[in-house]
């Protein structure tokens, strides 16, 4: 089934799996263009004016009840798919029964905005209570709620049971779910649908499928009578209940139909529509005494085992049902005897309640015709009439097939026309004086282009050959046996003629006349049926043989096909596996070569980096030594010029030595040296000012210029030294980072190499195992060959020994004959074979010379 998700507004299928909790909507359909269809739901068109109120109200109420899914018949079934529609109709009762709640939307009823009292609601007779499909929607759900057009709650199943029972005629126990539907008789359940209507006439039968718990195929176009007939047959197959034959019974024991308006020959055993059960609401079914009494349906009749009784000159068959539980007053259906155990239910006569008897009569097995044949006036074009004129030929009509076409007395046979371009056939049996057996006439006709074309066949049959068997097997008779118009009698031969007497009334004259003359060819029905059976039997045997051969061939083909498929699958699997192995090996080889190249390159890069790392300290040491030497030279000059600066110069030399030993703290030391140099410069300027007072201006000026130059040179060298130290730190950090990266790559390469080695090792192991297996197989073959050779040698030796024993035996026989005094030729002359072959080998004897 499909359910509509209220939140997503999408249809979700639940085929072959349990559906989630859902609510269903029961409503009456408006015009098709106003209803929300399957295509509308699929395409997201939810704003149709004719269905917006019912859909929005249903969705809102479901959300209030904590439900996410709803089912609405207009949009949850794809009615263009006949298979889905058929399945939905057969499953609809179960879908309503399994729903969490069913909302009955009465679009024609309004209670006003202020309505709140649900205990005294009086429901109006809206169209919902007259619709055929809503009957199962009323009976199936576990929880049922009624709402008006504004979605005001009117009540649930139990609170509105009484007014609903008044409107529908359904007893309260079934509405309130106190009783199950199976407790109601078939006639009672049919009466609940007697006043209901549907848009399509066949739906009046299809809407009752779930109420009786049966399944049947939908066939729109078959008309109501055919659909309802199929429904009743299905019910008889599933339910043992005689009340299905009680149609036409009124609530007061008198049928609702008027006898004046019902005319015809046979009303048929079954009802034409649910309206025939309008007065059967109080009928209760009685249990059967044994299984053999159940109703049996066969083509053309219903077989019933019932007591027969006479009432007011009419025959009634007493059914196992009645008003209430009183079995002393069963309901009887009118029957009219035709012949043997065949009966019809005549038009204009209806079931009655049979008064109590001292004792019920014995049961009789009767066959009630299912054909419904109306009487027709001569001008009616729906009936073919055949007037039988057989008295002059000494023939008496005793049987007609179908039986309902003849009342048993009249010389006229009335047969309903099956319609345009339809074939029809009746069979007549005549008792004849002077004829070996009965005379059987087969009349065929076909209506085409407004005219009736007839064909007749005359045959002879014994009384044991039934017309039903002949009718069933007529199409299988030989062509040579058809078309004969005469039978032989003691007076001569009887000839049949069929002529159209009245085209308007479709009246045919079937005339028999006796002609003198020699006997003519006649057809015997029993012989033709025997020939047919022999012919069909041989064909059947041939077909069975062909079927057996065909089954065997199919089995062989299937077996060969299976073997071929398995072989192809195995070969394909092996090819795929081999291809995968080859691709894997190629990939591994390529990865191995790439890894080897990368490892080689990494080794080279590692050596280069190691060399560069070893060379960096030497360069730094050389630069440091050069700077220190220059600084020492400059300090020496300053020491010569200014003795007062010796202690400060020594301090700077100490700072330079510490910078050489501790590269990581060089920045701070150089900065400190710069600060100290600034202090020395200040002190130098102060000393220079004091010294100038004592010396001449020119001499002191020259000395000051030389000190400034030395100081600038020293500062420049310190700055250059700091930059070199900074650059060395950067190179050392980059070298360390590169070393870490190389080590990580080296580890990854080692892991890949180890994985590759493991895979190669596994492949080698598999190859070694396969070689070992092949070697073992070869050894087993060699051992078997040796064993075969030994056995052959042993057999040869045994045969040689047997031949030796044979030769000895022959010699003993020869010696025995010599002792008896018989003269025999020499052993060589008697063809004795002397064994001269070497042990283990033998020479084949010349069998042509052996003579024992």
Automatic annotation (TrEMBL):
Region feature Disordered, mapped onto this chain: 819-852
Keyword Coiled coil annotated: yes
Coiled-coil intervals: 533-683, 711-819
Family matches, as InterPro entries: DUF8212, HET
Origin superkingdom: Eukaryota
Heterokaryon incompatibility domain residues: 22-115
Domain DUF8212 intervals: 226-297
Organism: Echria macrotheca
A UniProt-annotated Pfam family: HET
Record's keyword terms, sorted: Coiled coil
Name recorded for this polypeptide: Heterokaryon incompatibility protein-domain-containing protein
Biased composition (Basic and acidic residues): 819-829, 843-852
């Amino acid at each position: 089934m499909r359910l509509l998700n209220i939140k997503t507004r999408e249809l979700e299928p639940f085929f072959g799996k349990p559906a989630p909790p859902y609510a269903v909507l029961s409503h009456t359909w408006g015009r098709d263009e106003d209803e929300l269809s399957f295509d509308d739901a699929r395409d997201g068109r939810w704003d149709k004016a004719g269905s917006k109120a019912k859909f929005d109200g249903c969705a809102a109420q479901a959300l209030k009840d904590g439900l996410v899914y709803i089912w609405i018949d207009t949009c949850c079934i794809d009615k263009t798919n006949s298979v889905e529609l058929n399945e939905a109709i057969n499953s609809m009762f179960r879908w309503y029964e399994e729903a969490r709640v069913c909302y009955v939307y009465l679009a024609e009823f309004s209670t006003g905005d202020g309505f709140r009292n649900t205990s005294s609601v009086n429901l109006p007779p809206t169209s919902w209570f007259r619709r055929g499909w809503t009957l199962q929607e009323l009976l199936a759900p576990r929880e049922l709620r009624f709402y008006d057009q504004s979605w005001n709650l009117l009540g649930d199943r139990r609170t509105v049971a009484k007014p609903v029972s008044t409107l529908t005629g359904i007893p309260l126990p079934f509405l309130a779910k106190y009783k199950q539907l199976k407790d109601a008789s078939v006639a009672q359940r049919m009466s609940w649908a007697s006043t209901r209507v549907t848009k399509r006439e066949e739906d009046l039968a299809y809407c009752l499928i779930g109420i009786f718990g049966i399944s049947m195929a939908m066939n729109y176009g078959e008309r109501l009578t055919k659909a309802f007939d199929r429904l009743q047959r299905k019910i008889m197959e599933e339910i043992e209940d005689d009340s299905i034959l009680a149609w036409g019974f009124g609530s007061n024991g008198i049928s609702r139909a008027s006898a004046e308006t019902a005319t015809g020959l046979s009303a048929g055993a079954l009802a034409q529509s649910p309206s025939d059960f309008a007065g059967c609401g109080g009928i209760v079914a009685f249990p059967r005494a044994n299984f053999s009494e159940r109703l049996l349906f066969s083509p053309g009749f219903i077989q019933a085992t019932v007591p027969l009784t006479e009432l007011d000159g009419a025959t009634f068959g007493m059914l196992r049902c009645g008003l209430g539980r009183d079995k002393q007053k069963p309901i009887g259906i009118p029957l009219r005897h035709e012949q043997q155990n065949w009966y019809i239910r005549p038009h204009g006569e209806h079931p009655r309640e049979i008064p109590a008897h001292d004792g019920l009569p014995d049961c009789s097995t009767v066959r009630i015709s299912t054909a419904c044949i109306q009487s027709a006036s001569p001008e009616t074009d729906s009936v073919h009439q055949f007037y039988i004129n057989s008295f002059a030929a000494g023939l008496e009509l005793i049987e007609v097939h179908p039986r309902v076409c003849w009342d048993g007395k009249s010389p006229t046979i009335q047969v309903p026309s099956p319609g345009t371009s339809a074939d029809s056939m009746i069979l007549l049996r005549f008792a004849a004086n002077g004829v070996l057996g009965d005379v059987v006439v087969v009349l065929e006709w076909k209506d085409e282009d407004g005219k009736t074309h007839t064909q007749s066949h005359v045959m002879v049959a014994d009384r044991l050959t039934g017309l039903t068997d002949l009718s069933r097997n007529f199409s299988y008779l030989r062509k040579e046996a058809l078309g004969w118009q005469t039978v032989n009698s003691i007076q001569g031969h009887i000839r049949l003629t069929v002529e159209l007497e009245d085209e308007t009334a479709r009246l045919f004259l079937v005339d028999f006349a006796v002609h003198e003359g020699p006997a003519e060819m006649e057809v015997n029905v029993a012989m033709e049926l025997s020939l047919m059976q022999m012919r069909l039997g041989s064909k059947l045997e041939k077909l069975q043989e062909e079927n057996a051969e065909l089954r065997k061939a199919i089995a062989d083909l299937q077996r060969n096909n299976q073997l071929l498929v398995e072989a192809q699958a195995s070969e394909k699997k092996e090819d795929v596996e081999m291809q995968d192995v080859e691709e894997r090996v190629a990939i591994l080889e390529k990865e191995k070569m790439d890894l080897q190249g990368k490892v080689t390159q990494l080794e080279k890069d590692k050596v280069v980096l190691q060399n560069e790392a070893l060379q960096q300290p030497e360069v730094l040491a050389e630069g440091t030594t050069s700077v220190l030497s220059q600084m020492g030279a400059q300090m020496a000059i300053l020491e010569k010029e200014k003795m007062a600066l010796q202690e400060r110069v020594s301090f700077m030399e100490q700072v330079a030595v510490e910078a050489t030993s501790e590269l990581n703290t060089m920045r701070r030391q150089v900065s400190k040296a710069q600060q100290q140099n600034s202090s020395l410069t200040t002190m130098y300027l102060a000393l220079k000012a004091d010294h100038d007072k004592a010396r001449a201006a020119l001499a002191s000026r020259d000395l000051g210029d030389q000190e400034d130059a030395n100081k600038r040179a020293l500062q420049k060298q310190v700055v250059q030294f700091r930059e070199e130290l900074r650059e060395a730190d950067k190179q050392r950090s980059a070298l360390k980072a590169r070393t870490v990266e190389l080590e990580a790559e080296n580890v990854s390469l080692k892991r890949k190499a180890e994985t590759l080695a493991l895979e190669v090792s596994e492949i080698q192991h598999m190859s070694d195992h396969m070689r070992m297996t092949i070697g073992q197989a070869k050894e087993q073959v060699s051992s078997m060959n040796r064993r075969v050779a030994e056995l052959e040698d042993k057999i040869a030796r045994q045969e040689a020994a047997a031949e030796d024993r044979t030769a000895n035996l022959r010699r003993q026989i020869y010696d025995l004959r010599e002792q008896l005094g018989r003269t025999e030729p020499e052993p060589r002359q008697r063809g004795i074979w002397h064994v001269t072959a070497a042990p283990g080998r033998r020479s084949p004897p010349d069998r042509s010379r052996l003579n024992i």
